[in-house]
Amino acid sequence: MNAGLAAVRAGIEAAEAPALDWPELQPLIAKIDAEPYPIEALPMAVRLAVQEVAGFVKAPVPMIAVSALAALSLAIQAHHDAERAERLSGPCSLFLLAIADSGERKSTCDGFFTRSIRDYEAAQQEAAKPILTAHKSDHEIWESRRAGVKEKIKAQAKTGKPSNGEERELRDLDKSEPKPPRVPRLIYGDATPEALTYALAKQWPSGGVVSSEAGSVFGSHGMGKDSVMRNLAALNQLWDGAALPVERRSSESFTVRGARLTMALQVQEATLRAFFDSTKGLARGTGFLARFLVAWPESTQGMRPFTETPANWPALATFNTRLTTILNRAVPIDDDGALTPAALKLAPDAKAAWVGFHDQIEAMLSTGGELFDVRDVASKIADNAARLAALFHVFEGSIGPIGIDAMESGACIAAWHLNEARRFLGELAMPIELAHPLRLESWLLDFCRRERTDKVPTREVQRCGPGGLRDKAAFAESVKELEELGRARMVQDGRKKLVQVNPVLLAEVTP
């Protein structure tokens, strides 16, 4: 029997069964439904690699795609900018945020897609060893000369003799201090904003924060109440590609110029909620979250049977070979260490598509509009669509202006992420006592559809259910709320405890 028809029939039979003992069904709250990830919009080589990794890792497909997009951003951002219109040009770097529980295998996914980047880093560091050794010697010689001149000045001062010549020599030495060679470092783990800005200014102007446990980023000292405003603004400026002056009281001040930054973070919902609470609205008020492409996928934990490691990874090999080719190109960097990426323009038809997408989004931002509540995120989505289009264009080896296909793909992926932001921010705005029952009911209905039942063992919820609801107290409160609304209830089957879904809701579930 067709599984879909069986699920529908089970729902109908449940609805037709006596339900007189159920109270009248009360509404919970309207919610925005998740949309399937538009994997067909990815360039073929990216799509095939994502599907290949998904077949083995069995992580949520949107999370795997986020890892792939982060790798594209890291490899390409130093070489190209995206020009949306005349005098409207900016980086093609992406900020990506996956909201998921620990154990969803993001670090594994990142490892697959950043292999070529890590190999490139290792090769560059190995090649730089002789240069670094020579610099160390040159700097020690310079320090010795400087120390000797300072000693002469001190000796002259003690005897009251003039030291004009020595002072000039010291000034000349200070101007000629050997500068350390710039060696590419692209991937940072849980770097604080302070450490990151220094590295971009002094070491290499292109990098990315790639973290599967970004609670240490959001909860770092740099995000404390005394520095959060400054550091959020700094990250915003790096996304924009703007110059960033960094003033320091106890050490050298500096300016980050021509830098490009990718962020690819996974954070648990509870951690992100706590960050929003602790920053008292700054995360949205400053436009920090608005710059991210958000993904909030359903967990696959509990649905990942063991699979033998494939002998070959042809699609992933193609993906990483392409990135290696891009990484090995000469990086456009000036004498001051600032990047000078070439701007990619939109072809006329791609420009028309981008303008149409931009205007469609803009029309929904006004009071009462569909995107009014997420206008901060929506106002950046056309920019992100152009960034994605530029990445796809370069990755596929296209030449000339960005074409219509890349632009439409970028808009499709960006629109999906906008819906994810709407879903998450809609629930984030709810008090936890409403958000948890909503998530529990959604998970229960998905389980019932898959297993063709109206009852779910409580141990299954605590093993595989939504994050935050595996805690017994939170789970009990959520079931109590659903029971008061006539939507679900606890039942006993011998010694087994189960959550039973109202048959009316079950009948509404579609395959």
> What does the radius of gyration come to?
28 Å
Strand proportion? 5-15%
CATH topology of the largest domain: Rossmann fold
Total beta strand runs: 13
> pLDDT below 50 for ≥5 consecutive residues: which ranges?
10-18
Give the total of domains: 3
What structural class results from the helix and strand content? Answer: alpha/beta
- Outline the biggest β-sheet: 5 strands, parallel
Shape, please? elongated
Q: What kind of oligomer do you see? A: single chain
Q: Which architecture of the largest domain would the CATH scheme give at its second level?
A: 3-Layer(aba) Sandwich
Features:
single chain; 511 residues; alpha/beta; Arc Repressor Mutant, subunit A; Rossmann fold; five-stranded parallel β-sheet; three-stranded mixed β-sheet; 53% helix; 12% strand
Strand and helix layout:
Blueprint: H1 3-16, H2 44-57, H3 61-76, E1 80-85, E2 88-91, E3 95-99, H4 106-113, H5 115-127, H6 129-159, H7 164-175, E4 187-188, H8 193-202, E5 206-211, H9 215-218, H10 228-240, E6 244-246, E7 254-256, E8 260-267, H11 269-278, H12 282-285, E9 292-295, H13 314-327, E10 342-345, H14 348-362, H15 375-395, H16 404-428, H17 432-451, E11 455-457, H18 458-464, H19 472-484, E12 488-493, E13 496-501, H20 503-508
Question: How would you describe this protein?
Answer:
This protein is an alpha/beta fold. The chain folds into three domains: 3-29 and 431-508, Orthogonal Bundle (Arc Repressor Mutant, subunit A); 49-126 and 182-428, 3-Layer(aba) Sandwich (Rossmann fold), CATH 3.40.50; 129-175, no CATH class. It has 20 helices and 13 strands. The strands form four sheets. It has a five-stranded parallel beta sheet with strand order 4-5-8-3-9. A hairpin with a 2-residue loop joins strand 1 and strand 2. Helix 3 (61-76) crosses helix 15. The longest helix has 31 residues, at 129-159. It is elongated, with a radius of gyration of 28 Å. The relative contact order is 0.15. The model is unreliable at 10-18 (pLDDT under 50).
